[in-house]
């Protein structure tokens, strides 16, 4: 479950090791986003448009793409129910749905995001606005925050 970088990579690795596996990827999205590059777009060194591609272009050719949402898990039966009412039976499942952003958890954030100097690199639509704000900052203070919870794209330091 999950057709982002983690799900597609896991499926591809398994199929590279054993081409005879019957693997399906359950992912409802038409578009695939390479989210690690969003921080680079926010820094002005990468074109955000290049991070969006067709999901179909990344599904391994020998995997089956089920373009649905998972509605319920039944691990005791090795089954998942899909949004369309269909039930999928599995032997093993890798669950990589990504992290759900909850902008409404901070009062006023959702309404302010992408304007009034409020930026986030964790959103395709607003990451380029981060660089716009950085370029236009002539005086004052810039406040950068990092959540204490897991993040979509962890920052990696090199020496």
Q: How would you explain this protein's 3D organization?
A:
The longest helix has 13 residues, at 5-17. It is elongated and about 60 Å long. Residues 155-159 have low confidence and may be disordered. The strands form three sheets. It has a three-stranded antiparallel β-sheet with strand order 5-6-7, with no helix packed on it. It is built from four helices and seven strands. A hairpin with a 4-residue loop joins strand 5 and strand 6. The protein folds into two domains: 5-89, FAD/NAD(P)-binding domain, CATH 3.50.50.60; 103-136, no CATH class. With 159 residues, it is an alpha+beta fold.
Task: Explain briefly what this protein structure is.
This protein is an alpha+beta fold. It is built from 4 helices and 7 strands, in the order αββαβββββαα.
CATH fold descriptor of the largest domain:
FAD/NAD(P)-binding domain
Beta-strand fraction estimate = 15-25%
Instruction: Please give the largest β-sheet.
Output: 3 strands, antiparallel
Shape: elongated
| Number of DSSP strand runs | 7
Helix content: 10-25%
């Amino acid at each position: 479950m999950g057709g982002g970088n983690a799900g597609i990579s896991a499926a591809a690795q398994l199929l590279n090791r054993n081409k005879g596996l019957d693997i399906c990827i359950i992912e409802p999205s038409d578009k695939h986003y390479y989210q690690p590059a969003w921080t680079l777009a926010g820094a002005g060194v990468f074109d955000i448009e290049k991070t969006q591609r067709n999901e179909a272009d990344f599904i391994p050719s020998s995997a089956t793409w089920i373009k649905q949402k998972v509605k319920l898990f039944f691990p005791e039966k090795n089954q998942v129910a899909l949004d369309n009412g269909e039930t999928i039976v599995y032997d093993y499942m890798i669950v990589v749905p990504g992290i759900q952003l909850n902008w409404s958890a901070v009062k006023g954030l959702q309404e302010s995001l992408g304007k009034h100097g409020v930026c986030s690199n964790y959103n395709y639509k607003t990451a380029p606005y981060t660089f716009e704000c950085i370029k236009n900052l002539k005086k004052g203070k810039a406040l950068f925050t990092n959540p204490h919870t897991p993040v979509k794209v962890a920052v990696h330091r090199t020496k």
